[in-house]
Amino acid sequence: LHGGDLYLDRQNGYIPFRLNMLNNVDSIVPISLQGANYLQTTYPTYNFNQKIFVNYLGSLDYGIASTAPKQPHFVIVSCSSIIPLKRIELIYQSILLASKTIKIHWHHFGDGVGMSDLKKSINSQPNHENLTINLHGQTPHRQIIEFYQSGHVDLFINLSETEGIPVSIMEAISFNIPAIATDVGGVGEMIHHSFKTGILIPPYLTASDISAHIIQVLDNLLDFKPRQHWLSYFNKQNNMQKLTTHLNLNI
Question: For residue 46, what pLDDT is reported?
Answer without folding.
Answer: 87
